[in-house]
């Protein structure tokens, strides 16, 4: 039976994440927003602390335990709240401190989620400790990952990769990159595989770092691959092209990362709500949870509506993470959580800027920064429109060819 209360065994970990966000991330948030592309050295100490916690088995890091489709909850009657739930809730707390700094955490890259979801057992052990960025988006493909043009051609015991990837989070700082490429474009989605490419691999080149609206402390890179040779053993999972499974391996990665991105949006929005409540109270605007919204001031009524939307986003995020922990297929729920949280995150942070007027719009407070940061959470890992399309396909039982 699903229980969406914060698991008691994870309460200590989540409280630690909140304390770290409040005492380490929040104080340096503005500094690294202004110093775009400068590496936050303070994170090295934080990464060492997280490594220590991970060794205790309390959490699996940002990559969590993965959504491994070869395991089924039916094999066990035990209901558990594991690494995915712990990661999602901890990420929400860390993004309450600063989303960009969370994305800059060493060894906690989005590529680690791909490894957790798709890699075989030998690869999971071999890649332990790596910091992996994830390279999906290409010029001209947008959010349609099925249109990937980067190729991987088998040559002896190596794959030769050619192509270009853009908007790679931690693409410059990470020590490896999980690259999505097609083995055979004529085979469609089923031929798209993930490869772990090390940054010192000849043929990989970081072309530039992007200047962005938000998450400025996080480096976002454009990377080219020119006859980049990768050992065949670094293809994540099975090299077989199974047209019946389609885009399964790639989707397993998204089923893992989308609840985490939803958690980021939930955390950033919560930060805005907490500060806005305090600022409204200082301005004499009382928010009464025991009275109907329509009998309160317009500002208070708007705030209550924002909190209700936020609560819905959090519950959807927790449901998707819970299903991943219990090895239940969660593609629908992962997209619902990402769509809801991405939209709510942008709506909440921008509305908080408006509610707080000049204080919200100026750099006197972090509200304007959170509004800038939150927008990316509605875009990467699949835009709002892509998520709604996926949800529609799942609900109506239609394929991607039937509903575009």
Automatic annotation (TrEMBL):
Source domain of life: Bacteria
One of the Pfam families matching this protein, by short name: Acyl-CoA_dh_M
Keywords, in A-Z order: FAD, Flavoprotein, Oxidoreductase
Residues of the Acyl-CoA dehydrogenase/oxidase C-terminal domain: 245-396
EC class (word): oxidoreductase
Cofactor(s) required for function per UniProt: FAD
Family annotation (InterPro entries): Acyl-CoA_Oxase/DH_mid-dom, Acyl-CoA_Oxase/DH_mid-dom_sf, AcylCo_DH-like_C, AcylCo_DH/oxidase_C, AcylCoA_DH/ox_N_sf, AcylCoA_DH/oxidase_NM_dom_sf
Region (Disordered): 59-79
SUPFAM superfamilies registered for this protein in UniProt: Acyl-CoA dehydrogenase C-terminal domain-like, Acyl-CoA dehydrogenase NM domain-like
EC number(s) on file: 1.3.8.7
The UniProt record lists the keyword Flavoprotein: yes
Keyword Flavoprotein: yes
Domain annotation Acyl-CoA oxidase/dehydrogenase middle: ranges: 133-228
Single GO molecular function: flavin adenine dinucleotide binding
Similarity comment: family membership: Belongs to the acyl-CoA dehydrogenase family.
Protein's name according to its UniProt entry: Acyl-CoA dehydrogenase
Organism: Nocardioides cavernae
């Amino acid at each position: 039976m699903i229980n969406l209360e914060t698991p008691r065994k994870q309460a200590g970990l989540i409280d630690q994440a909140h304390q770290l966000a409040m005492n380490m991330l929040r104080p340096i948030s503005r500094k690294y927003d202004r110093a775009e592309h400068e590496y936050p050295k303070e994170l090295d100490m934080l990464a060492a602390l997280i490594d220590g916690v991970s060794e205790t088995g309390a959490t699996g890091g940002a990559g969590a335990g993965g959504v491994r489709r070869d395991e089924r909850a039916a094999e066990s009657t035990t209901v558990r709240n594991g690494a995915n739930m712990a990661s999602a809730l901890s990420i929400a707390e860390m993004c309450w401190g600063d989303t960009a700094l969370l994305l800059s955490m060493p060894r906690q890259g989005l590529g680690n989620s791909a490894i957790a979801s798709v890699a075989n057992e030998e690869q999971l052990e071999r890649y332990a400790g790596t910091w992996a960025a994830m390279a999906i988006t290409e010029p001209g493909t947008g959010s349609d990952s099925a249109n990937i043009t980067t190729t991987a051609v088998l040559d002896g015991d190596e794959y030769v990769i050619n192509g270009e990837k853009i908007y790679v989070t931690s693409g410059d700082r990470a020590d490896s990159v999980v690259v999505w490429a097609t083995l055979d474009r004529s085979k469609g989605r089923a031929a798209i595989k993930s490869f772990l490419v090390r940054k010192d691999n000849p043929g990989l080149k970081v072309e530039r770092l992007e200047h962005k609206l938000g998450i400025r402390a996080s480096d976002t890179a454009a990377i080219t691959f020119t006859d980049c040779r990768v050992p065949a053993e670094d293809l994540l999972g099975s090299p077989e092209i199974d047209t019946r499974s389609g885009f399964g391996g790639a989707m397993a990665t998204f089923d893992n990362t989308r609840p985490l991105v939803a958690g980021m949006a939930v955390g950033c929005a919560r930060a805005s709500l907490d500060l806005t409540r305090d600022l409204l109270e200082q301005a004499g605007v009382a928010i009464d949870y025991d009275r109907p919204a329509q009998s309160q001031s317009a500002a208070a009524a708007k705030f209550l509506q924002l909190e209700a939307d936020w609560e819905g986003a959090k519950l959807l995020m927790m449901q998707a993470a819970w299903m991943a922990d219990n090895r239940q297929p969660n593609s629908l729920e992962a997209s619902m959580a990402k769509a809801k949280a991405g939209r709510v995150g942008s709506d909440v942070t921008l509305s908080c800027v408006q509610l707080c007027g000049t204080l919200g719009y100026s750099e006197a407070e972090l509200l304007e920064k959170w509004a800038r940061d939150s927008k990316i959470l509605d875009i990467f890992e699949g835009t709002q429109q892509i998520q709604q399309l996926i949800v529609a396909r799942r609900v109506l039982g239609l394929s991607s060819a039937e509903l575009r």
